[in-house]
């Protein structure tokens, strides 16, 4: 069993209004040193696969087909092998 940690972010060329709003709010709270905020999504996926490479392939295909918008978003996949299956 493998756990895929997927991070999806807007491409640098895409305006991030949510991140900009967070940056302004942080400045209002006294965090003037924050120069930029970009918001994204974090997805955890449990995958039954024979190898880490196979699990990474499954997670990558899921991102390409559904989870990430190929026009506006980039994604990164990290695979972690689990000792035992987590209890649901």
Describe this structure in words.
The chain has 88 residues and is α+β, with helices and mostly antiparallel strands. The protein has one domain: 2-Layer Sandwich (Mth169, Chain: A), CATH 3.30.1280. The protein contains two helices and three strands. It has helices at residues 17-28, 52-67, and strands at 2-10, 40-47, 73-81. It has a three-stranded antiparallel beta sheet, covered by helices on one side. The protein is elongated, with a radius of gyration of 17 Å. The two termini are 14 Å apart. The relative contact order is 0.34.
List keywords for this structure.
single chain, 88 residues, alpha+beta, Mth169, Chain: A, 3-stranded antiparallel beta sheet, elongated
Instruction: Let me know the largest β-sheet.
Output: 3 strands, antiparallel
Widest sheet: strand ordering: 2-1-3
| Number of domain units | 1
Instruction: Give average pLDDT, whole number.
Output: 95
Q: What is the ordering of alpha helices and beta strands?
A: EHEHE
Question: Looking at the structure, what is the overall shape?
Answer: elongated
> What structural class do the secondary elements suggest?
alpha+beta
- Tell me the distance between the termini: 14 Å
Portion of residues within helices: 25-40%
Low-pLDDT stretches: none
């Amino acid at each position: 069993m493998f756990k895929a940690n997927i991070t999806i972010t807007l491409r640098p060329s895409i305006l991030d209004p949510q991140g900009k709003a967070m940056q302004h709010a942080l400045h209002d709270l006294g965090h003037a040193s924050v120069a930029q905020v970009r918001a994204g999504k974090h997805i955890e996926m449990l995958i039954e696969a024979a190898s880490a490479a196979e699990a990474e392939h499954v997670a990558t295909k899921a991102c390409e087909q559904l989870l990430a918008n190929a026009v506006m978003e980039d994604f990164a996949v990290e695979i972690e092998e689990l000792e035992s299956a987590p209890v649901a």
